[in-house]
Amino acid sequence: MAAPPTPAIELKGISKSFGPVKANKDISIRVMPGTIHGIIGENGAGKSTLMSILYGFYKADAGEIFIAGRKTRIPDSQAAIAAGIGMVFQHFKLVENFTVLENVILGAEDGRLLRPSLAKARRELQSLAAEYGLDVDPDALIEDIGVGMQQRVEILKALYRHADILILDEPTGVLTPAEADQLFRILDRLRSEGKTIILITHKLREIMDITDTVSVMRRGEMTATVTTAQSSPEELAELMVGRKVLLQIEKAPATPGKKVLEIKALRVIDADGIERLRSIDLDLHAGEVLGIAGVAGNGQTALLEVLGGIQSATGSIKMNGDALDLTGRHSGGRSRRARGIAHVPEDRQSEGLIMDFTAWENTVFGYHRDPKWARGPLMNNAAIQTEAKAKMERFDVRPPNPKLAAKNFSGGNQQKIVVAREIEQSPDVLLIGQPTRGVDIGAIEFIHNQIIALRDAGKAVLLVSVELDEIMALSDRIAVMCDGQIMGQGPAASADHIGLGCLMAGMGGADTQQMQGWHISAAAKADPAQEPAQAAGSH
Amino acid sequence: MQKMPQWADVILVPLISLILAGALSALVILAIGESPYEAVKIMVQGAFGTTNGWGYTLYYATSFIFTGLAVAVAFHAAMFNIGGEGQAMIGGLGAALVCLFVPFPHWTFALLGGFGAAMLFGAAWAFIPAYLQAKRGSHIVITTIMFNFIAAAVLNYLLVNVLRPTGGMDPATAKFPEPTHLPTLHDMLLPLGIQFSKSAPANVSLIMALLACVFVWLLIWRTRLGYEIRALGHSESGAIYAGISAPKVAIISMLISGALAGGMAINNVMGEAERLVMNSVEGAGFIGIAVALMGRNHPFGVLLAAILFGFLYQGGAELALWTSIPSELIVVIQALVILFTGALDNMVRMPLERLFLSLRRTEP
């Protein structure tokens, strides 16, 4: 047995294949108790597969798992929980119309009657909250609390089941920067209380900020395990993709041309009667990237959907002087495409792609009525397939097999399929939402370069992203949204994190005044104490 | 990633399901003291042993192809059309009306006219639930079931009060005029020198059913409309993003579905009864659901499944005729086949997928 201290968890020689695909090849990790261990890697590197093996979702083809020095078999998640492993998934597994308390005990009720369990859970929850600083209202309904809170409930669920080892899969993907900070404080607290944490992410900054040790995965293999303090983001990035990547984008200054889109007094009230946009005024010019910054859920989705023709609105949008139809008819997306407006939606899995369609079918999705793809009354599948193959090679989609279903590609490659489809239309306006959400570094760089290339070709790009770094890196002009309003807009060159952060929280003030050439709206100045809008849901 | 080769998915899974259903049926037959071997022999002999048996098997299969395709098309748009029964009844009404009131000069005109009217009526009957689903959110499963009963009531009223010839003793229309008589397989095969049973009801509708299979295949996998139907079926939010009008495509898919179910009338109403009687559909609308399930919503699968159910219908009738096995047991056997091939599909599929995965792993 290893010399003390014994690792809290140790994996030895884990391998797992899915058919011909080797998702994990001979992986070994040791994680010491009371530490945070990061696992970083591109999409499809095998991080999630490894954790699924650890949590009992998959059975490894080979290899052994030791928990606190004891060899442990984990055939299912029950066994994982019994072994003291808790998992917080990227997509929370909570019952929306249950309270926090009910969610915590779900599956861990003792006895047939609920009341004693609830009372016991309430006491335990209070002591857990006190111990780890995890404040949540036990009686709040899940649907009423923000994403950050929901994540705490997931952590509490694991702790309630006496987890000593916590696995978090891309925990900050759905969080605002402030919520992410809070999460890290909680993780820090958990670490100091002796819990062992495994953090799966593809964000280098998070790894640098919080982990003690980090393992890098690439194409199913563990390429390195290093002590975080002795590494650098550049080194880790290189280990991840096997080559140096530019974290900064090189681009020439923009040469904005004529006004392409003119948005006036745009207002959206959605199907639930919630006002998503409150009188938005925006202009978009040819040859520029306009970045819309903001915390998720502050109206950016509605803005994209109105421009994309699938959400109704009042006010007006003029494209090259002609008014666009704002009725949000069911076929609205089609008429927008005909006008030269391409749309990369925020959610590729439920909108941008049909996951069960093949890659080649997806490469014409939305453009399938283009006469170019028709052969009489039928679709010219052969032509579409040939073109799809070429497109996939141009955009480095791996594997470049157009007959594979979209769901069989990794997230980054799925996104490349969507981006390839929209950009290759050479649209006059590209709407692009969260272009690199859940996308690995290599693909991020590629997608960013494609966006800049489109801009340089004199096209207009409207970029919506919750990643401030992405907005700063790509945009020529930035507009900040909060609570359905534009808080301010101005040149990207003079924008800084602090000023943008204030505007994202709906506040004006001194920090925003320092940004040269920025127009701060009255809404931001009027009420500096205004609470930042809660991120509404995770869609 | 493909979990198992396509041939296993398409052929092996239904085959194993069938064998399981057969095994269980054999046990049931044993339990009531009959010989399963004899039973199978009678069924196969009855359904495939003579041209007469073939004629009945194919006659049933023709109806099931139409209703199976109907369910399959709607299913591709994620609409569960349980109203094939009612749509086929109303389709029969359409066929009967043109046969009775349009003086067709030749059976070819009658076939086309009858087919057109049957499809039109079937589609119209499907339109109401489709509209209610697409525009008002009424669940299609509920409304189509309801519409089966309404169709039966409408037909009952019309046959008793309006279409029954004076002096007629049963709720049925008059016999259709002679030029609407469709050639049976006997008529069609005779010029080729093949002797086919004269009394079997299989008729030229079989050809139309096969054409319908080709049509549906083209529609679903080769046309833009089919692309939109499938896109909608997989993801409504995706379809809306792509500018596909979800309500419109949903309604169109139901119209096509209803037309296919209604089109069945050329087989049972024009081809066989040559008049419209009550309950002329005989449950074919419901069998269509099982046929589509078993055929995995693919026209070729529907064709094979329709022939299988044709065999079960015809073989089952023979079984009831020649043995003391009660006719209720035939329903049990049919139900077992539906249960295993449709509802318990995953029971066979998942172990098989695991088997293929482990086989592939051992390969280099």
Automatic annotation (TrEMBL), chain B:
Q: Which CDD domains does the UniProt record give?
A: TM_PBP1_transp_TpRbsC_like
Q: Does the keyword Iron apply?
A: no
Q: Which Pfam families match?
A: BPD_transp_2
What terms describe the molecular function in GO for this protein?
transmembrane transporter activity
Question: Which parts of the chain are coiled coil?
Answer: none
Membrane topology per record:
Multi-pass membrane protein
Keywords, in A-Z order: Cell membrane, Membrane, Transmembrane, Transmembrane helix
Residues that span the membrane, as ranges: 12-33, 53-75, 87-104, 110-128, 140-160, 200-220, 249-270, 276-295, 302-323, 329-348
Record-level GO cellular component terms? plasma membrane
Localisation: Cell membrane
By its UniProt entry, which PANTHER family does this protein fall under? ABC TRANSPORTER, PERMEASE PROTEIN, GUANOSINE ABC TRANSPORTER PERMEASE PROTEIN NUPP
Q: What is this protein called?
A: Sugar ABC transporter permease
Q: Which species does this protein come from?
A: Litorivita pollutaquae
